[in-house]
Amino acid sequence: VDIVIYLLGVIKETEENKFEGLHYRYVQELLRFCKGKNIEKFVYFSALGAESKATAYFSTKLQAEEVVKKSGIPHLIFRPSVMFGRGDKSVNFFIHFIQHHKVVPYFSTAKIQPVAVRDVVKCVRIALKKKKNKVYEIGGREQFTLGEIYALIIRGFGLKRVKMKVPLWFMKSVIVLPNPFLTSDQLKMLQIANTTPFNAEKEFGFKARINLEEGLK
Predict the structure, then answer these.
(1) What is d(CA 201, CA 17) in angstroms, rounded to the nearest whole number?
(2) Which residues contact residue 116 at a Cβ distance below 8 angstroms, ignoring those fewer than 6 apart?
(3) 44 beta partners
(4) Is 17 left (phi over 0), alpha (psi -120 to 50) or beta?
(5) What's the mean pLDDT when you consider all of the chain?
(6) Quick check: 185 pLDDT over 80?
(7) Residues with Cβ < 8 Å from 150, sequence gap 6 or more?
(8) How far apart, in Å, do the first and last CA atoms of the chain sit?
(9) Residue 186: helix, strand or coil by DSSP?
(10) pTM of structure
């Protein structure tokens, strides 16, 4: 094995899969296993916003970043914004929610910078050819609020829906109900701007090919 790419992660905890284990402890174990094996590069997938430590999701990602940096193994750390592509668990979550509700509430005006998974893959391939250890933030070419993403989905799927901006206290009251569609961690994350000034096109010498509207099609 020459290159190890760590992609394990969850956006929502279950009894079997916890943030602490998947995002941090397993990384420690894998790095311990990799030592002395002449690994050319260890690639860790973190998340844009991890340095905020605002949620358990972010803080465990950041903990793992620190362990990777101190491992002594050549490494790359990627912090992508919300990634979209066939079968993703983020934009598809919004799509599923909108398809099954006539009224779609939103609350946050924080910006999100969705990026196509195939563009992220291309960044990884190019970065692997570089020798230096580095942290890369990756975002798409456009920034949207949650309401704007909803509007793209509604228009793209030809749906008739009512978008309703609701106060934060309303969303906080919803998540305490049984089986809420959002967790408290997800609610906090949606309040934080998930954008980066990093220019992937300039760094890697290629143009991101897919924007969110094209990706929805």
Answers:
(1) 35
(2) 83, 84, 85, 140, 208, 209, 210, 211, 215
(3) 6, 77
(4) beta
(5) 88
(6) no
(7) 94, 98, 104, 106, 161, 163
(8) 37
(9) helix
(10) 0.88
Nearest to 204 by CA among 129, 117, 127: 127
d(CA 183, CA 174): 10
Contact between residue 76 and residue 44 where contact means Cβ atoms under 8 Å apart: yes
Using the structure block, give the residue that is written with the tokens 């973190």: 46
Which single residue is written with the structure tokens 């079968």? 87
**Can you give the length of the chain in residues?**
217
More confident residue, 175 or 61: 61
C-alpha dist (Å) from residue 90 to 83, 126, 213 = 7, 25, 15
Q: Which tens digit of pLDDT belongs to each residue from 50-108?
A: 988 888 989 999 999 999 999 999 999 999 999 999 888 889 989 998 999 999 988 87
